[in-house]
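ESCALATION

Customer reports they have been waiting on this structure for their group meeting. Please prioritize. Original submission:
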Amino acid sequence: KGQRGQGVEYRRGTLQRFTDYVNDKNDFPISQFSSRYDGASEAIGYGKTLMMYHMLRRKVGDDNFKKALQIFYRNNKFKVASFDDIEKAFEDATGKDYKDYFAQWVNRKGAPQLELKNVQVTKKNNKYNLKFDIIQIQKDKSFAIDIPIVIADKFGTKTMIIHSKDKETKFSLTAANKPLKLFIDPQFDVFRRLDPREIPASFSKAYGSKKMLIVLPDKSDNLYSLYKNFADEWVKGSSSKIEIK
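Update from on-call: job pushed to the front of the queue and completed.
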């Protein structure tokens, strides 16, 4: 999808499925994934794993990413391999330690959820100072994440990577031109739970909800029977979580 220019939408859809389907009761680390059996297991086993590799590729670069996978293949073909072997291949390819990265994304469940607060722009000595806070609002402990940010001024945009490892991280940047807009992870490069304002309405939101309410039109409406039949079909097998009014 990325090679066809559709990577952003695909990653947003991947993160939306995790946001809609996965909760405290059905979440598990990808190290425990064996096969998909429902929406949540697919969102973790396929979606979270996809994002884990995407973030790793951005961290090490395309050349080292390919080199690491080549090393992994050569060292493990015709063998049973694990994420530990993948980790070792990336360490051999880059000369860096990725133990914490794999421990966080492979062996830990959950996902960060980000909120932008306290954005301020001040001018001093013909330069502009941009301050903002990024809050990790999930209930679990904080994640160590590299967050792409885009700052727009009247001349264009500038992209940079900032690192967040605490529940609340304060940032301060100096710019020659007045910042007009600030975007946090606009390309959906970070594995995280999405804000409702980032995603369109979808049936997956309803499917993944713990409880659902279907409101039918008045019985005098010409479409009542159509909607009633639709609702009855939907409720089959899920009457405990769906209410019709």
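Sent to customer with the following note: The first helix runs from residue 7 to 21.
Escalation resolved.
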